[in-house]
């Protein structure tokens, strides 16, 4: 009886923890789920990818993952904190053209034709509901004091995973952001965290919104969603197209490779610059995260001019070397004759009518970690 009572108490504690701990967000309301049932990409209480995407793993996969965890890879983390270039808040926003600042992983600040937009602004120290237990940010901090940020015109989220949608970051930004644009269902999380409903616009794939002369289009991705044990795929995931009077930008969010890239390119390309995920991949989950070579092909599919690789140099979420993604994507870009830019964290990249500032195409990470193997040195 005592054992049963202890087990029951543990179950009750876990249930209340999942229900009331704020970083988990909030379940999509029943009324909204009923509305989702009318959508072609929602079935059996879950959103679906355009391309059938299996994420099931067999016993052999789980055993191989366990083996990788136990034996580890000493190169999964950099040997020292990554350097940052401080961002001057007084320089925001840039009035003409495009300027982008990468904060590591997938967090970006886009200054485009007078508007300032944050893309997946995950500024926390760890992509975990319990940061003290999660792996830590490589750069230890971000290159800007959020309290000094000017008014941000928009925040765009691609999906609700912890390395993209962060509770503490939203709480710090909520008084500085005019409007939030998110895929379907993410509004529930934001409202629980204090964002007024009227300041949130939810989108299905191919829906669009207008923002001060910009057009924001929610476009497909090949991924999944969920923040707790019981909400897998209950909210939508997406990529985003941002169209200005003179410029076009594509943000991949998280995505496995698929035909949606070509479809997006045919509808909205060509793009002046693409922000494409290139890290946290593994053959065991290749359907939901691209290999770096696929990153370059996806860039070509959407008809991009220049590629800025993201989803690396932030956190360890896979088993590859921490700097392998950028090395592989550079190698693939050279083979396909793709212009690629690799700025330091916090380093602003200004897009002119012809080229990026050449200083933002350095190989800065090679000075951080001397454990680079011979095959990578050959790519220099």
**What count of domains describes the coordinates?**
1
| DSSP summary: helix tally | 9
What is the name of the CATH topology? Metallo-beta-lactamase, Chain A
The CATH architecture assignment turns out to be: 4-Layer Sandwich
Please give the oligomerization state of what you see.
Answer: single chain
- pLDDT < 50 stretches: 371-380
Order of helices and strands: HHEEHEEEEHEHEEEEEHEHEHEEH
Shape: globular
Query: How many distinct beta strands?
Result: 16
Give the end-to-end Cα distance, rounded to a whole number of Å: 66 Å
* CATH class membership: Alpha Beta
What is the strand content? 15-25%
Q: Identify the strand order in the major beta sheet.
A: 8-7-6-5-4-3-16
- Which structural class fits the helix and strand makeup? alpha/beta
Instruction: Round the Cα radius of gyration to an integer and report it.
Output: 20 Å
Q: Specify the helix fraction band.
A: 10-25%
CATH superfamily: Ribonuclease Z/Hydroxyacylglutathione hydrolase-like
Give the averaged pLDDT, no decimals: 91
């Amino acid at each position: 009886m005592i054992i049963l009572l202890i087990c029951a108490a543990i179950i009750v504690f876990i249930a209340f923890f999942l229900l009331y701990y704020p970083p988990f967000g909030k379940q999509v309301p029943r009324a909204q789920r009923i509305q989702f049932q009318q959508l072609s990409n929602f079935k059996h209480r879950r959103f679906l990818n355009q391309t059938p995407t299996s994420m099931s793993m067999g016993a052999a996969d789980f055993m191989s993952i366990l083996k990788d965890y136990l034996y580890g890879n000493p190169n999964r983390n950099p040997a020292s904190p990554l350097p940052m270039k401080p961002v001057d808040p007084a320089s925001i926003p840039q009035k003409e053209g495009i300027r982008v600042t990468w904060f590591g992983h997938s967090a970006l600040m886009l200054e485009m034709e007078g508007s300032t937009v944050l893309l997946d602004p995950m500024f926390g120290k760890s992509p975990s509901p319990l940061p003290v237990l999660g792996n830590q940010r490589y750069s230890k901090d971000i290159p800007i004091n959020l309290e000094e940020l000017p008014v941000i015109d928009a925040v765009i989220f691609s999906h609700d995973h912890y390395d993209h949608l962060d509770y503490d970051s939203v709480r710090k930004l909520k008084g500085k952001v005019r409007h939030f644009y998110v895929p379907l269902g993410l509004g529930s999380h934001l409202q629980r965290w204090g964002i007024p409903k009227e300041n949130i616009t939810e989108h299905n794939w191919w829906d669009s919104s207008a923002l001060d002369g910009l057009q924001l289009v929610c476009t497909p991705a090949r991924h999944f969603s969920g923040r707790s044990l019981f909400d897998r795929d209950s909210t939508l995931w997406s990529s985003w197209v941002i169209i200005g009077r003179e410029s076009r930008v594509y943000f991949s969010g998280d995505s496995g490779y698929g035909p949606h890239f070509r479809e997006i390119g045919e509808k909205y390309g060509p793009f002046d610059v693409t922000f494409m995920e290139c890290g946290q991949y593994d053959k065991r989950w290749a359907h939901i995260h691209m290999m770096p070579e696929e990153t370059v092909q996806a860039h070509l599919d959407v008809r991009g001019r220049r590629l800025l690789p993201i989803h690396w140099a932030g956190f360890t979420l896979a088993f590859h070397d921490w700097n392998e993604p950028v090395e592989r994507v550079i190698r693939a870009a050279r083979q396909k004759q793709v212009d690629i830019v690799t700025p330091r964290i916090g380093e602003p990249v200004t897009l002119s009518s012809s080229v990026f500032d050449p200083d933002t195409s350095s190989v800065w990470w090679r000075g951080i970690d001397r454990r680079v193997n011979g095959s990578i040195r050959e790519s220099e």
